[in-house]
Amino acid sequence: MDEIARMLEYLHLLNNPNADTYRCLASLHTIPARTLVAGPEEENAKVIFLVSGLLRGFLVDESGADFSDCFVFQYGDFRLTSLRGERRVVKYYVETLEETAAISFDAADLMPYMVKDPEFVRTAMKSASEVYAEHIHHKHILCHTSASERYRWFLSNYPGLIDRVPHRHIASFLNMTPVTLSRLRRAEREK
For site-directed labelling of 71, which of 37, 153, 174, 186 has its Cα 20 to 30 A away? Predict the structure, then answer.
């Protein structure tokens, strides 16, 4: 089974009547580490499903500072790059942190199936609601927990990423300075 078929199976779309169309619309890419995959300048939004590797979503403020918004690291994790309306409000980017394999679709190509294919709609809504819930939970953690609680939450919810992601990106994701993260890591090791 090729990688696109494997992903369609994972998404419960391999036996869908439109499976051949989805296969034709899908593109499998192997992307080198430290490559910008999407940014606000792009005309077309992309739907990205991770096969392997590691993606980071981040925002850039007016001063040029970037803030990590999410990490995509498990097979089948889904992200939608910025839609046209969002681009006017925020500068959102997606980059690879490791060599990454991903299957992507042009969102505009998928839209006709959103209205005609109930199974696809269920799959898309489930993926989108999981991403939304993850983002809301992350915001809750940022607002209602201490730095040490955020660090422990990261370790339990993002297993192994502490050794794969540059610590400045983890610090920004957890809304702390790299110095605070370093202090927390040292304290955790000493326990």
Answer: 186
Report d(CA 19, CA 12) in Å as an integer: 10
Q: Could you give the C-alpha distances from 40 to 43, 47, 136, 173, in angstroms and in order? A: 8, 15, 22, 20
Q: Quick one: 5 exposed, middle or buried, by C-beta within 10 A (0-12, 13-18, 19+)?
A: middle
The answer to whether 183 and 169 are in contact (CB under 8 A) is no
Cα separation, 96 vs 48, whole angstroms:
12
pLDDT in tens, 19-30: 999 999 999 999
pLDDT tens-digit profile of 81-128?
755 555 456 678 899 999 999 999 988 888 887 778 888 888 888 888
Q: Where are the domains of the chain?
A: 3-117
Domain 3-117 has CATH 3.40.50.300: no
